[in-house]
Amino acid sequence: MSIEELSLKLFLENNRITQKNWEKSAIEFSDLKAIAIDHNSKVASLDDAASYLAKILQKCPQVHSVRWRVKNPEHLIEKIVRKRAIGSEKYLSINTENYTEIITDLVGVRVLHLFKYEWVNIQKHILKHWKTEEPPIAYIRSGDEGEIIDSYKTNSCEVKNHPAGYRSIHYVISTQPTLNKVFSEIQVRTIFEEGWSEIDHRIRYPNFSDNELISYFLTIFNRMAGSADEMGSFVRNLTSEITIQELKIEEINREQELHLSKIEDINREQELHLSKIEELVSELSNEKNKNKNNDSKVNKLNLEIKKLRANSQTRPSSEYNSLLSGVFNSQLPNISSDNYASKLASMNARIFGGNSASELATVNARIFGGSSVSELASMNARIFGGSSVSELASMNARIFGGNSTSERASMNARIFGGNSAPGLASVNTSLLSGKITSQKTEKEIPKVESEEEVNKSETSTKEKLKIEK
């Protein structure tokens, strides 16, 4: 049946309006019917406006779903009768010209969300896109308390107890899809509240709105819906806390892995340093062994040097004495009192190249600093106690048995084979080349029995020369 065909009787029966309340409303049915017909002509455009609102609201991340509806024309005039019957002043002057401004829910949009605390973000989204015509109203059930009530008040909501126990937040905004401004009501509630309200409306209306038993059990159901909201929020908070703890654990694990990685790096670096230290220890050990070998070699070299020094101090004296003894023994036997001058001249020529005076002076200068007489006298005093002649004679007797000439001739023959000049030259060469110990002549040089005997022989020879002179 169309709205034009609707009768007063049918209207009152369909909407369970008593005759008493109809009389209290004090309005003509024709006026109500005119409002209903005008509204019915605008339903299509209002539906487009509601769809537009729903699309904007759906973009909010906390919104689960959006439902909308345009008010049914018969339900519109039923609301006018009910509001006038209870004495609502703004409905007393309602007509076809102003009903769109008086009735704020011609377009109704319901925004559903899962958890109670999400309403705050949804309100921010609404206020970002529209200006409200009146402060938001938060409807609660009698007995509700706690943080949710405090949050309503903190966010500028007017808190009211709903007689039927509805929990919902209502926002009134204005739109103008046509020439006339139209108000729309946005209701924000949880899914549990929406489920309870739908069941409540379906059961109560139109036959059990005043049934106390039905009202009692619907009230219990309302509390169960509220508890379900609380449990949903609790589980959500629990999962959030678990997530936070897991993130903290992950962060701790990452830090632990980072520390372990740093420890591994430190261990690798330490192992590298230990390897280098071991290499250095090995090198130091090798160097120590080398130093030991070098010390051993140095000790050996020092020992050899000491031996060479000892040999250099002992060998020249004995060898030179032996050589000088050979020289005198080979030359002096041929010298007599008659021809010693010519023999000495010959020796001078062979030994000094004919310039014995200058050579002897040179030798004297090198050995005694130019004072051979005083030095020889001093040596004579030190060696023989000042009696060189008697001492030399005694030495001659001990060495040669008193026959120094024949003995020296024999020594000359043994050493130089009777030729003292080439023998002396050979000895000279050996001395200059540093190979006296290994030098060999045509005949093997016999070893002098002792240095003391050679010295005695030399001394005897020198004494003999002095006697002859």
Could you characterize the architecture of this molecule?
The structure is a single chain. The termini are far apart. The protein has 17 helices and six strands. Helix 9 runs antiparallel to helix 10, helix 10 (212-331) packs parallel to helix 17 and helix 14 crosses helix 15 (404-416). 66% of the residues lie in helices and 8% in strands. Among the domains are: 1-41 and 72-105, no CATH class; 108-206, no CATH class; 316-468, no CATH class. It has a six-stranded mixed β-sheet with strand order 1-2-6-5-3-4. The chain has 469 residues and is α/β, with parallel strands linked by helices. Mean pLDDT is 76; it is low at 331-338 and 427-449.
Radius of gyration: 73 Å
How many distinct beta strands?
6
Q: What's the shape?
A: rod-shaped
| Widest sheet: strand ordering | 1-2-6-5-3-4
Quaternary:
single chain
Strand content: 5-15%
Largest sheet: 6 strands, mixed
Residue runs with pLDDT of under 50 for 5 or more positions = 331-338, 427-449
Count of alpha and pi helical runs:
17
Distance between the termini: 188 Å
Given the helix and strand composition, which structural class is it?
alpha/beta
Order of helices and strands: HHHHEHHEHEHEEEHHHHHHHHH
Average pLDDT rating: 76
